[in-house]
Amino acid sequence: MKSQSMGITVNEQPQYFNLAFETEGKPNWQQKVGHEIRVGPYRFCAIPLKGCINVSEVTTGLKIDEISLNPLFMAMTATQEDALVFFRYVIGPGLKGKIESSKNFDELLVRMQEKTFERLGEMPRVSDVAKDLQDELTRKEI
């Protein structure tokens, strides 16, 4: 895919995403709150976890990257607005580079989807975080 058509957008609406995890040796889906990052036709999510940001592919729940939150990155993501800018201008271009450097990202994605379905079954759907929960999460961040 040509880089001109690989626009990067970030959804401001927090959503529940389903990540592929392994707990005590058993694969399972774990629902986490984050934001969607679109790179061209590809969908990823950025999920703040303890000390890092997990970046996963949305249709598989598989981790693509993990960004350690050093003091600079912590300052750059101090508010939700700051985090959205960070996702758009730091994480998004990194994902774009990974896609463009892959020989055939579409083929890799299909293999990832098949393997995830084989191990975990159908993924629960992605859904928006309700407004009242958003307000509660925002209050906890303050």
Low-pLDDT parts are none
- The total of helices stands at 4
How many strand units? 7
Measured as a percent range, the helix fraction is 25-40%
Could you describe the 3D structure shown?
The termini are far apart. The model has no long low-confidence stretch (mean pLDDT 89). The chain has one domain (7-133). The chain has 142 residues and is of the alpha+beta class. Strand 2 and strand 3 (26-39) form a beta hairpin. Strands 1, 2, 3, 4, 5, 6 and 7 form a seven-stranded antiparallel sheet that branches. The protein has helices at residues 71-76, 80-101, 105-120, 131-141, and strands spanning 8-10, 15-23, 26-39, 42-49, 52-57, 63-68, 127-128. The chain is built from four helices and seven strands; from the N terminus they run E-E-E-E-E-E-H-H-H-E-H.
